[in-house]
Specification:
Elements lengths: L1 E10 L2 E11 L4 E5 L6 H9 L6 E6 L2 E2 L5 H6 L2 E4 L11 H9 L1 H4 L7 H11 L1 H5 L10 H14 L4 E5 L7 H16 L4 E4 L3 H7 L2 E6 L2 E7 H5 L2 H7 L4
Parallel strand pairs: 3-8, 3-9, 6-7, 7-8
Antiparallel strand pairs: 1-2, 1-4, 4-5, 9-10
Helix pairs in contact: 3-7, 5-7
The structure holds adenosine-5'-triphosphate.
Adenosine-5'-triphosphate (ATP) binds next to helix 1.
């Protein structure tokens, strides 16, 4: 569904991704793990059009989306829940969710029923239902993170990119984020997940890639990576 081939990305003259390739098949949850600065966020930003790739190829459902503007990539069916709770803070929770669905009206993909999707999003994120008329900027950090995820779901996308959905959350909310990821997976969503909690990410994912200094060093089924001695030592607390 999402295919990245030989992607190179740079900030100015400094190349950060040195030719990475990865595949996110339909209905699968794939996780990208790696140390700080390995290039995980840069990968996500290159896919969603926030950063123009230097070279390589990115396709979504068979359509070449390399180098397109973000709004065109969103219309093609890619939702990006970025690192760091990007919500429209002066708008209500409900309006943030409706904005998430906006690209469906400007693209050529089937629009589906927004009301049904709103109901489903509220069911998935009950905290947002309770606070639907609240200004998004007054939500707690954890609630804003949930809103960013829910807004991505409202695009009814082909693929959802989730960059550190658990960042900065209290442990109880981290558990909730992983429960929601499991539910999204059970619904058959296709997702690429970047997570600091590599063990938890591998527990919920089907497949994993390890990014080291801008290159994929290992990849394989999540269950296999979890037991890989090198991966364990470097990313899973040695256990
Ligand atoms: P983390 O887990 O810390 O978020 P990451 O794997 O997501 O790390 P990136 O954010 O992709 O890593 O960063 C990869 C490299 O690119 C780092 O060396 C970082 O300093 C550099 N970098 C990121 N953003 C920029 C930018 N806007 N300008 C210049 N360099 C950048």
């Amino acid at each position: 569904m999402l295919k990245i081939e030989n992607l190179h990305a740079a900030y100015g003259k400094v190349e950060v991704l040195h030719g990475i390739s990865l595949d996110v098949p339909k209905g699968k949850l794939v996780t990208l793990i790696g140390s700080n600065g390995a290039g995980k966020t840069t990968t996500m930003r290159s896919v969603s059009g926030m950063l123009k790739p230097k070279s390589g190829n990115i396709s979504l459902a068979g359509k070449n989306i390399t180098g397109l503007d973000s709004h065109k990539i969103a219309r093609a069916g890619l939702a990006h829940s970025p690192e760091g709770r990007r919500v429209f803070s002066t708008m209500t929770v409900m309006d943030n969710l409706l904005l998430g669905a906006f690209p469906r009206y400007t693209g050529s993909r089937p629009r589906g029923d927004i009301d049904t999707d709103l109901q489903r999003a509220m069911e998935l994120f009950p905290r947002l239902r309770e606070r639907r008329n609240q200004q998004a900027g007054t939500l707690s950090g954890g609630e804003q993170q949930m809103l960013a995820m829910a807004r991505a779901v409202m695009l009814n996308p082909e693929v959802i990119l989730l960059d550190e959905p658990s960042m900065g959350l209290a442990p109880i909310l981290v558990d909730e984020v992983f429960r929601i990821l499991q539910r999204l997976k059970d619904e058959g969503r296709t997702m690429l997940l970047v997570e600091q909690f590599a063990a938890a990410a591998l527990a919920v994912a089907d497949y994993g890639y390890v990014l080291e200094n801008g290159r994929i060093s290992v990849h394989g089924p999540a269950a296999q990576l979890k037991n890989d001695p090198a991966v364990k030592a470097a990313y899973l607390g040695g256990g």
